[in-house]
Every structure is written in C-alpha cells, then in structure tokens.
Specification:
Layout: H1 3-11, E1 20-21, H2 22-28, H3 35-43, E2 56-57, H4 71-81, H5 94-97
Parallel strand pairs: 1-2
Helix pairs in contact: 1-3, 2-3
Length: 101
Amino acid sequence: MSFYDRVYEKVREIPRGRVATYGGIALALGSPRASRAVGYALHCNPSPGVIPCHRVVNREGRLAPAFAFGGTDEQRRLLEGEGVAVSEDGIVDLSKYLYLF
C-alpha cells in the first residue's frame, strides 16, 4: 500500500465532528516528519466525497489556505455542517475537536 493510500485510510478514521492535524496523521503512520507529504496527498485526494480531507487542519487548528476542493470557505462550511465551530479567523479549537489516533 502506498503512503498516499495509507494517508487516505487514516483520514477516513476521523469521525464526523472532529478534526486531525497533518502532523498527527504523519505520526500515526509512523512518519512524524511527513506532515507536508500528508498535505500533498490530501491535495491530490482522488475521492473528496469519500475521503473527508476537510477534517484535516494544521497544528494550530487553522483551515487550509488553499483547500483543494473549494477553498477555505468550503472547508469551513463542511466542518460547521458537522458541528465543528470555526472562529472568524479560520481556527478550530483543537482542545475541543482534535481527534487522536
């Protein structure tokens, strides 16, 4: 299984209403220094409706500045639709919504 496939499998584990970080996914895959590779894999997400890449934020809880499937506004809309509060400046409270693998 490729690294990208492992990323997609891990992202599918994030429950509705929760978020994970790029670094958290990399760590869960045993590659703690691969957070950028996780981000690129999600940018290339072959199945956006199936692989919920909108549930992945950066280590500060910030939304992706270039969310590949509709921009930051779409990522916000999807997360808020699942009950995740996003601040006006595009930050998710990780103390409340972070999913740990």
